[in-house]
Protein: Glutamate decarboxylase
Organism: Lactiplantibacillus plantarum
Amino acid sequence: MAMLYGKHNHEAEEYLEPVFGAPSEQHDLPKYRLPKHSLSPREADRLVRDELLDEGNSRLNLATFCQTYMEPEAVELMKDTLAKNAIDKSEYPRTAEIENRCVNIIANLWHAPDDEHFTGTSTIGSSEACMLGGLAMKFAWRKRAQAAGLDLNAHRPNLVISAGYQVCWEKFCVYWDVDMHVVPMDEQHMALDVNHVLDYVDEYTIGIVGIMGITYTGQYDDLAALDKVVTHYNHQHPKLPVYIHVDAASGGFYTPFIEPQLIWDFRLANVVSINASGHKYGLVYPGVGWVVWRDRQFLPPELVFKVSYLGGELPTMAINFSHSAAQLIGQYYNFIRFGMDGYREIQTKTHDVARYLAAALDKVGEFKMINNGHQLPLICYQLASREDREWTLYDLSDRLLMNGWQVPTYPLPANLEQQVIQRIVVRADFGMNMAHDFMDDLTKAVHDLNHAHIVYHHDAAPKKYGFTH
Ligand SMILES: *Cc1c(COP(=O)(O)O)cnc(C)c1O
């Protein structure tokens, strides 16, 4: 690889044409050291744009949950606030106020009880928010365990979660020395197995994580049922109760609008904290997440630091320090711009497109549907078994890419890894017209594959293809 960029590249450079009329564009881009000379802004812009040219179009990226469209007014507003550092709360007190308003709005959306004192913060995304939720559980557990006289050195603390966890929980456990007690998933249990979850809980359990929207399949853990078994457990273990953190990275800004009657949030007594990604169904460009605790007692004071604020002090608990305030401001823009009705309308449309796509894909006759968008608006399917089919889902991903669509194919997590699935995430900017275009392209791709002479793949082992976050 490095050879290509090495000193012996002079001949190659001679073939670079100055298409845009400036001699500096005749040179290859610096890849290893800061260039000696500067370029004009126009040239630098041109060269960097060209470098990005053959990358996928984000609107056609059906792999990501992250927002790929915001309104021009929101983008302008965010551009104008890029230079504000969100942590400088005394310099930008209105921005700090806007963050607090967002926390209020979100706590209300998730039914934080009136008689408790919720608290929360913005983060860079759900990964940081999950770190904070996990750390709070670890610190609070340690205090309870000490008071109960447990030997803290006898075992490492553990966290209980289903095998459908997102990688941030693996990071949490590695970074903070926590064992992960993984509740297996199988074909009968494609989410947290509530009947067996307590088998994984012991005195060293810092908490149980429920997932509102498993990243791989879009299924929800049954939080109400989990809350019930936890209530029962806590009656029997009053000194060392366990609590629930809900990883609602995707569902946190989706479920309240699409299934308001579904009870998964602070209405459940044992749910102490919830995180969500503002940049998923909160409809903001990447770079914002949220975590809220139902009551301050669940956020140990050691994790709260003070920054100066208008001559006074304001608590901060985020891990990151400096970052632009633009995403926060984009989130507040969306809240006041859309309101309950607007969010409901947007998510309902997204839901309808997902349901249409699921039905249309089922009709193709080649797929066994695994998730048909009835919860999160994502669709997963395997190939239906057929002896004489020569192509795989990886081949189908390749064909779809010829039309620009990026559709990931990957194996399911542990125990289910022999099942290779394809996943489509529907977002607000993926309208019905695009869905029709997609189905036209997919139908043609399947037809072409069925009539192609296929060279078999030698490597039969499942592989990952495309992002799965
Ligand atoms: C996306 C996702 C995360 C990570 O969120 P980021 O905002 O990308 O950091 C964590 N958990 C679940 C369930 C997710 O879907």
User: Anything to note?
Assistant: The mean pLDDT is 91. The domain at 78-334 is CATH 3.40.640.10 (Aspartate Aminotransferase; domain 2). The chain is about 35% helix and 15% strand.
